[in-house]
Amino acid sequence: MTIAFGNSIEPGGMELDDDRFDCTCPECGKQAKERLWDTAEGGSVNSYYSISCPHCGYHDTDWDEP
């Protein structure tokens, strides 16, 4: 669990989500892992997702790694 503090987010702090669960791979149809998470970046909270399949190597995310 991560809590972000700051004047522009929530003065008392805000718990950031980091959820992981099983899903179906859109490429091969087998069991894959999905992650939904928040990050505190530049005074705002941004939400991202990723799907990774260990069977076929499929990977999709909307997060651009720095």
Give a quick set of tags describing it.
elongated, four-stranded antiparallel β-sheet, two-stranded antiparallel sheet, 66 residues, mainly beta, 64% strand
How do the helices and strands line up, and which of them pair or pack?
Layout: E1 2-6, E2 10-16, E3 18-24, E4 31-41, E5 44-52, E6 59-61
Antiparallel strand pairs: 1-2, 3-4, 4-5, 5-6
What would you note in describing this structure?
The chain has 66 residues and is mainly beta. The protein is built from no helices and six strands. It has strands at residues 2-6, 10-16, 18-24, 31-41, 44-52, 59-61. The protein has a four-stranded antiparallel sheet with strand order 3-4-5-6, with no helix packed on it. A two-stranded antiparallel sheet has the order 1-2. It is elongated, with a radius of gyration of 15 Å. The chain starts with a strand and ends in a 5-residue tail after the last strand.
